Amino acid sequence: MEDVTDTVFRRIVKEVGSPDLLMTEFTSTDGLCSGARAKVVGRLRFTEIEQPVIAQIWGTHPENFRTVAAECRDMGFVGVDINMGCPVRKIIKGGGCGALIGNPRLAAELIAAAREGAGAIPVSVKTRIGVSRPNAEEWLGFLLQQGIAALTIHGRTVSQQSEGFADWSTVALAVRLRDQAGLSTRIIGNGDVRTPKAFFQRVEESGADGIMIGRGVFENLFIFRAIRETAAGVEAPAEFSRLTPREKVDFFHRHLALHRATWGERGNFNVLKKFAKTYLRAFGGAHDLIDAVMHTHHYSDALEVLDAWAARRDAGTAEVRKESEPCRSERLSSTPE
What we know:
The longest helix is centred in the last third of the chain and has 26 residues, at 299-324. Helix content is 48%, strand content 10%. It has two domains: 7-241, Aldolase class I (TIM Barrel, Alpha-Beta Barrel); 245-324, no CATH class. It has helices at 7-17, 29-32, 37-40, 62-75, 89-93, 104-118, 136-144, 169-180, 196-206, 216-219, 223-231, 245-263, 276-279, 286-294, 299-324, 328-334, and strands at 22-23, 27-28, 53-58, 79-84, 123-128, 150-154, 186-190, 210-212. α4 runs parallel beside α6 (104-118), α7 (136-144) crosses α8 and α12 runs antiparallel to α15.
């Protein structure tokens, strides 16, 4: 997800939940192969902590796919994923991502070029089920014939964007098409999985080999850990909402500090504001704290807001404890001899 799944957030998600695979923000192959490279190459930055991690790319020129896939291989990524589903209008207008559903010839050329450049590492595709209307059987069947290692299906059309509900019957369709063709392509489902219960339900009904979770991480940062714990029979799997307010604030504080340390003082601070509601919610005063963060313009300002909140809360907690704690003589007199 753009301006979300950078190396900083991936490290945090990996530490608290340890998903099987992580994926970069979608990165423009055309940008990497032009004078704009410096602006986009940071999207491919990763650390060994994040491994295994896959490079997600998009674009419209096969020669650039060949070049970038080879670069991703040499950088140490375990795979290359081609985005053929993003519904952003300016990208669709330029013929990339979701627009490729209506241009299978170019889609095939891009896949072939990426496979050539990637060499030994696998190439996969993430897509939707149509542009303005569902066209799942024809489109998914076509993609399965392109020699890709995995196919991720988001069960919405491009025009739906994030509206409505994901159609998971299309994921089951892809599984059937794969099996009928005798292929080994991994089928991965995506869309509306926000809880462990939904995860196991979707796996059962679709037969998918895996589930990709995007927005669900915002609702429960611990969702991958919760899925593992549910599978292990833990009665109360991890839930970020059950953390104390101070613990939630500490998570956001760490994210801000790690982003600053990673990208430097000139990092895009404003992208961090979208994380405020991920961390700072479901406790008294959260709305005011989020509002205060949203009005900051620099790492130092945001960290100062969080530190001030923590200091006030700690002082308040200490005062409550002081008032409620019995004096020494009272404690001694109430102690049995």
